[in-house]
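debug: dumping io for the single-chain case to check the tokenizer round-trip. Nothing else runs in this session.
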Amino acid sequence: MTLSPLDDYPVHQVAQVMRHPATSDRNFYDRYYFNCHSCSGDLMLIIGIGQYPNLGVTDGFALLRQGGRHQVVRASRELGADRMDTSVGPLRVEVIEGLKTLRVILEPNEFGLDFDLTWEGTIPAQLEPRHFIRWQERAVFDSMRLSQTGTWRGHIKAGDQAITVTQDRWWGSRDRSWGVRPVGEPEPPGIQAKNPAQFYWMYAPMQFDGFSILAIVQEDAEGERILEGAVRVWADPARPPERLGRPGYRPDFAPGTRDVQSAVLSFEPPGGQPFGVTVTPLLPVSLMVGTGYGLEPNWKHGMYQGRDLVVQGVTYDLSNDGDRARMWGMVDSIARFECARGAGQEPAVGYGLFEYWALGEHQPTGLMP
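debug: decoded output
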């Protein structure tokens, strides 16, 4: 066993040094995710940094979607002994005040994208329901996640364009998740090969003036809920969160596609009045392209890239048919949300993340493999 600086803090949960998770499952991970936008469809910046202790790897990415440009800077290195070191080459996260203020930096590099941004949570961070899926006797998902909406300040530089980021109009959401999910190089599938590819998902952390709503839905092919949660969280920390019951999700797919062109979310808070939220996607971003979430065979989260630090840049032009055809999988979209209020009142208007994927069969919506 090897000690690390984190061992000097009284945070141990098991009889191991802190750099060793309680499980030896190769798929254990610990990850940051952030998104940043200007409450419009102008651009979206997505940032992720993950550690994979049982694979000995840490990696990260920054994805900028602006107009028809899909640009990724990504990096990977050996994890080493210090789990408190959240840097991966030019990319790093600094925790200034836990659960409140963080700084995310991509230093200037040869690929023409850099930033220095500070996150400020506008609501208390929320712990989401545990995500657990067992397929063919194996727990393939077993993770926890905290989520939060907030604002950004700092700057982004993309090529020759310098963008000043101010808290009055630059919003976003973040999450921190940890546990078990598929990562790293592909394993021999064994009996898992019998599982049909299926993933029906919706995640929407949305921010309004004075409150946020965090909603999540995952269903199997028959429409049975695997994961669900809905809560309204007030900016005033003295006001307790409001549980919103079982969230409803009704997407409207563009004809002949699985692209959501609008959606309605419905909520029935116990003891309160049911209400709905209308979702209008503004800028869809293909999260899985270039970032390591699963499409490229040579760059996946936790994949060992060698002894030395590796930093790469990948850019796609969505006006090109070939590049546009690559845009497949999970979509992270900036969205406009209209939250219904009482009779005679205009809906509250907010902005946030609308994340969705409809892979494989989903009988309630008529989607087939």
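debug: round-trip ok. Helices lie at 321-325.
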